[in-house]
Amino acid sequence: MAGVEGPLTNGVSRTNGALNGNGDLHDPIPQESPIAFDPSLFRSYLLSLLPPIFGASPEELESIFDDDFHERVSRFAGEGGGVIYVVKKKDEQESEDTPPTYTYKLTPTLTYDPSHVTTLAIIKRGPLLDSTSPLATQLHILNLFGSDETPYESLHAVISCAMKPYFEAFVGARGGGKDGDSKMGIPVTKKKFAELELSLLHLQQNVEIPETHLIIHPVIQRAVEQARQNGQRPGISDLPPKLLSDSTFLNTLQNHVNQWIKSIQTVTKLNRDVSSGTASQEINFWLSMERALEGIDAQLRSDEVTMVMECLRNAKRFHATVSFLADTGLKDTMDTVHKYNQLMKDFPLNELLSATDLEKIQEAVVLIFGHINRKLKLSPYPIRRALPLVEAISRDFNDQLLRVLTSHRLLYTPYDTFERLLSQTMAIFRTWDDHMKEFTNIAREVTRKRGEKFIPIKVVPAHAKLQDRIRYLRDWRKQHEQLAVMTAPTKGLGGVGNEIGGMDMEAEVKEAYEVMKRIDVLDVSMEGGEIWVAAENAYNERVARVENQIIARLRDRLGTARNANEMFRVFSKFNALFVRPKIRGAIQEYQTQLIDSVKEDIKRLHEKFKTQYRSSEAYHMSQMRDLPPISGAIIWARQIDRQLQTYMKRVEDVLGKGWELYAEGQKLQSESSAFRKKLDVRPVYDAWLHDIARRDMGVGGRLFEIVRLRGGGYQLAVNFDPQIITLFKEVRNLLWQNFQVPHAITNMAKDAKRVYPHAVSLMETVRTYGQTLDLVENNKGIEWLVAEYRNEAQRMVTKGMNIRWDYFVNQYDTARYSDKTNNVIDLYKDILRSVEELSTCPYTPEAFRELLGKIQAAIDRLNLEGYANLDHWVAELDQRIQGILLQRVTHVIQLFCSEFERADDHDSRREILSRRDKRAKNDKSADGTLALTPIVHEIRIQNQVIFLDPPIEHARAVWIHQLHDWLGTVCRLKRIQSSRYEIGLQMQGHTVTNLTYTSLLTKFPDTTLEKPFALIEQKVQSLKDYVAKWLQFQSLWDLEAEYVFNRLGDSLALWQQLLTEIKKARSTFDTSETQKSFGVCVIDYEQVQARVNAKYDAWQRDILSRFGVKLGNAMKEMHASILKARNDLEHHSIEGLVGAPRRF
């Protein structure tokens, strides 16, 4: 467990326990104290590592392990440092013959010195070193080479050969799409690596401009420093006077000046061969030269140099001072370098050298040449140097293209990606060539302007071989892809029979391609060219066997073709393979058959031409498409000529170029040439020109003319020659056919073209005007609405009668009359349709409002469009609508009356209902659906009072209300108005009072409106009479029996009369019915019937019983009277009666 506890105690132990608010652990777990790193382990590691790297023995390395070794290692192993360096330093030698000796030291800080031979950087991978783990897993080792003038080469090697490839390998292994890489910043990192690599390469390639330090005499130096300390301007007065005349001092100063001249001349006369290095070296050379010259110039302006020159001039030594600047050549060189650097400054070469894809390379080429072509006109940079500079840029361009294309492994990519990359590359080459042409022209122009010695403006591009190889590779891959597609299982020659003679063509093509994938296809060196040729030969050997199989299949298909069209169909299907010479040679056997078929096709063209243009279908089609006759004939002949060329091209596509050299081909060529001569349209065109020149055509005369009709009368017509229209169309189409029409005819056509739109418009307008007049004549109802537009059109015609075509500028448009007429006719028809529907629509407010809304919307549109006499026209339309609505109201009143007068019995009611249903089916207006709902009145008794609920007056109110509703369906409708958009009426406060059709009620010619009210009153009176009978029974409760008895007295006749009347009165309520119907009203007496009957029975019983008593008493009295009379008679003596004579 010791190996586990070590790291925990050094670095991870702080994870045990929880932090409190102050960042300290609380409740820690007891643990051992940290184990310190053992420097002896590091010593042993260095003794094993350094001898092979430094080439030194362990004894020589003992200088590393000094007294401070343990302290430095402990600090490095702890959290203090992340890197420590081991430096191998070369000791100074007294003589060159003695062998070199070296010193080794261990240091935490890094310095650079030319004596440092090797520097080894030891970098920690973690924050702490663990004694229990191998140091090899905890340390990075990096060898920083030394002993060079500059470390640029070593750093460039580290970046380009180690760090950048390692990063790209990691990114490639991790995978991820382009979008994911962009989000993580990987492309930016790649670009930074490329820029760093490029910067180090530039630093490595730069021509070092020697630094010039002018030697200053110590006396002069001290004098200048003293003057500066005193805040004075240095001068010769600061020197001792005797020193100014000291020849030794002056000679020393003069020697210093001569040395200055030599050292400055070393820089000013420095030059480089632009063709020997890279473009960046040339650019950096001039930029560094300018910086060096500016440094020299700054030194020459210093107080020390000025004091030296003053001393020499004071001593009359002018030969050293006068020609100083001329001898150095500094001014001229600075001027030249400054002008050259107009081209070199901001030179966008880095955009090319740091480009990571083809798009960036193309953009860089555009930027570079744009900079060169623009700055070359301003900078006097010699053309003889500019040409090698462009060649150097071409080398960089070639290298960058190779770097980008090689990274894609072209032959391993899918064909779509391959084609896209190479198309992009060829586009980059075309961009280079286009800008190269522009550069060449500018170079010639600049050479001529500067008067420089003539040199051939020629640039040998370093990428020419690469361009040829890419072009060849692209064609080769295209041919291979065509072959691979045709041999695939689902294409062309694939499927059944793919394996012929025991060979799988698809596999054979793939194996042939594998041969090419093994080589570097972009290697254009001599050795690379030989490898390419050998690989291509191996590829061709395998592909040749596949071609033989394809030829066999192709011959089979051509042999089974029934006609030339099928042959051509086979050729078109396998046309992609005909670029291969072997396959192309195999199909030449069929040239005779194809030539014969083409002869037949040409013969049919002869027959088509013999029918002549005017007898062909094309002539009729040309008339439909408004093509004039001459142009149509020329287009027709050219179509035949193009078809003939198509036949010739088809033969050439199949048989190859040079087919006309064969005997049959020569004959076919001669026949086609003779036919093409007949198809020459030039004679037709010349004949047309002669005919036009012979005629006297032009645009003139008045606009209108009056033509007499054969049947009598006159007609307005446009005075325009139709031949002018034909001329204009002919010239237009002939110009489209690239004929050179003479200037005079063109001008005539231009005049016709200028007038033609107006003439055609006038012709159409005049024709439309005549048709519009006929329309108005046939639609008299709209004549007032369009009267103003008709007057306007007539004014236009009157104005145009005096205008000639020569001065025709404005277009006189009478089409407005026609447009307005057509519009108003459509609206008028819609309005009439809606008006007619008013007489048949359902008798509902919604139906009437919808139709009147449509009519009102049409009237509003007429108002907005400004039609004249609209008020009068709307008034007439309103009268028509009012008549229709009056008929509907009359019909509704009649319907109300018939409903009101319907019979009371059920049979008659059923007959009326069936008649109404039949009428509703036949009447589309649906007036039959209107019906009066019968009102039920109930005769009730409450608190011994008989009354009618609701009262009869309610029935009258309901019937009148229903009548008003039926009439209000029409009478409440809003009238149509013509002035809804007239704001003037609203502003004046004027309101139209008659806004509805209520006034229809005053338009009835007879007593139609009075009849329903009379029927209502009759029905009310009938109800009153019937209800009065029931109300009489109220007396049954109101009368006192004694009052009745006293009223009757003892008169039996009165009693008998009362009983008779009571018997008759029972017929009113003593029935099986419970209600009485009056048609539109029903009297329900069910509630009161039983009570009246019971009360009646009680009264009848009382009266009968009292009548019985009265009758009994009367009978008793009569009986008594009779009995008394009898007794009286019996008591009379008969004697008195006997004596009297009897008379019989």
TrEMBL record:
It comes from the Eukaryota. GO terms for molecular function: dynein intermediate chain binding; dynein light intermediate chain binding. Residues 1-32 are annotated as: Disordered. Residues 250-812 form the Dynein heavy chain tail domain. GO terms for cellular component: axonemal dynein complex. Coiled coil: none annotated. GO terms for biological process: microtubule-based movement. Residues 10-19 have a biased composition (Polar residues). Pfam families: DHC_N1 (PF08385). Belongs to the dynein heavy chain family. This is Dynein heavy chain tail domain-containing protein. The lineage of its organism: Eukaryota, Fungi, Dikarya, Basidiomycota, Agaricomycotina.
